[in-house]
Amino acid sequence: MTPTYYLLLSALLFAIGAVGVLVRRNAIVVFMCIELMLNAVNLTLVTFARINGRLDGQVMAFFVMVVAAAEVVVGLAIIMSIFRTRRTASVDDANLLKY
Amino acid sequence: MLTAVPPVELPEIGGASGAASLAWLLFVLPALGALVLFVAGRRANAWGHWLGVATVLASFAVGLAIFFETLGLDPGQRTRELHLFDWMSVGSFTVDFGVRLDPLSLTFVLLITGVGSLIHIYSVGYMAPHDGGDDDHAEPGGDSSRRRFFAQLNLFVAAMLVLVLGNNFVMLYLGWEGVGLASYLLIGFYQDRPSAATAAKKAFLMNRVGDVGLAIAIFLLWLELGTVQYSEVFERIGEVGAPTLVAITVMLLLGACGKSGQFPLQAWLPDAMEGPTPVSALIHAATMVTAGVYLIARCGPIYNLTETGRLVVTLVGVVTLLIGAIIGCAYDDIKKVLAYSTVSQIGYMFLAVGLGPAGYALGIFHLLTHGFFKAGLFLGAGSVMHAMNDDVDMRRYGGLARHMPITFVTFGLGYLALIGFPLLSGYFSKDAIIEAAFGQEGWQGWVYGGAATLAAGLTAFYMTRLVLMTFFGEKRWENLKSDDGHDYHPHESPVTMTAPMVVLALGSVGAGAVLSGIGLTEWLAPSLGELQESDHGVLPHAVVPWLVVGISALGVLIAYLVVGRRPTPVERPEPVSFPVRAARRDLYANAINETFIARPGTWLSRALVYVDNRGVDGVVNGTAALLGGSSGRLRRLQTGFVRSYALSILGGSVLVIAAMLAVRFA
Hints:
Chain A is mainly alpha-helical. Chain A has 3 helices and no strands. Chain A starts with a helix and ends in a 13-residue tail after the last helix. Chain B is mainly alpha-helical and about 675 residues long. In chain B, about 50% of the residues are buried. Chain A: It is found in: Cell membrane; Membrane.
């Protein structure tokens, strides 16, 4: 088992997530890209835990999952309410909070 | 040359017991009276004035008790101090709130509370609300104005007593400012008159100039000696270097000039006559304006050490006594003539205390007799105004002697005392000063003595003129109406007014003989040192009284020829010769103040305002505008475009990581 591959995969996933956040307009897709980035980070944590033979990275991954789950609940609720009022889920249209 | 002065022995200071331990009552009683009258409001209208009278009378009684107790002591033990509480204590700076009971302060206590009581009683009648058609003293607010008047008068008495009783310079300053405040309030008492408001402001401002001097003197003493207690300051004043000593004395003198209406700060005192007449009598003739004399006499141990300091005091006195006497000859306003007479007489006192140990006691002596006769004269003038619809123009008076006999007789006695009629009080005190002035050696003897004698002649002239125009001659008021359209009905004043006038007239007659008979100078010696008489003067003592009486008689004669023998025109004659014109305009004192102090001051403040608006405000406003403008532009970064924020976050993270890597691998 070569940890490098895991790390490369994780970097790739993170990059895809980041690009997705930047270029996509649909809030649901942006949201999924964020989840993708979080999971890329989880993969890194687990990999390093494995390399070092310690458990703290794994524990940290669990924490990230819990936080991500909570974030999904709140985030989806917000997206739902935006969609209901504006009949769209485009992040570019929700731009009232500015100068 | 001024004679060199051997250091005066300072008295031993004992503790206070017996009546003296109640000394705090002296100023607490009037202060309480003032507090009650101010706080009780309209409820006190009915009895407030009697409370005011009662507190001052009680204070007088306490003063008398302490005085007689002190008389029973050995002269060496007559200086006592009563510590009340620690007033301030900051680091090494401590100020006691303590009372110094010595012959000097007790003399002042009796003068202030004694004359103060009489004038309080007089005011009950003078400030009474409307009792007939011809009385215009009831000001807006009706009855409550008399209560307010008594509250302020009580406040004045309390502050004046703190001034003379304090055992340190800070308490002196407290009282000094207190009497200034009371004086301000009372000059502006008729608050609906713009002239009264202006006069009050003028008095306050000119007093501030003097007060700054006094404050600087106290700072210097603290800086040099680290104490403001009289006893310690006078004991160690010899440690102070000569230049600083002169600075201290000159600054003290500046304070004294401001409070006492002396040159160059004399212009406020005549304007202060805008206040009610009892105020003029008590504050601006008998007590407050003599605070400057008290200050210099009290600081005798300081002045003894510096000839220059004393010389300046004497010169101020000489200049002022001439200025006051000259201007007094030209005015037609009865109160202003008396005011300039006060300025001139206080000039005599300054001349006396400026002579050092040869004159301190004489200055205080004249202060006491002056307190009697000048207060009496002012009360008499108030009585005349009371009868004449508050008119002060002597050209509208005339022939009043038959209509108000008590006022005429009491005023006449005060007049004779002031011009130094033999054996009346002014004769003893003023002649003693002129003798001491001629007792100096060289040019100083001639200048001081000559000026004082000349002013005595002028005094006789203007006072005779005043009496002739007011009480004799034709009744010029018969065909005139007062400014408010009433006829004049001169009448004698009520008994609350005449009784104090009678008492003060008795004082004017007897005070001089009694005080010199019972040995005022010996009584004051523990405070002021022994009176030193000079034998090397330019004129022998025996000649001086004849000279002064002769010159005064000449002044009376000239006044009779100029004023008494000729009818007095009701309208002021114009044009007149230059000296009269100058005197009518206060020898241009106001114009000089205006040109040399007020105008440059205005220019300076305008320039400062310009600098402030353009310079200081420019910097402040510029900074604000710069920040506002730049943040207005920075605000544009908040586009509300979420993905651009995300890009910024990513860019930022990349930069941070790049920086960390760079540090790690560099």
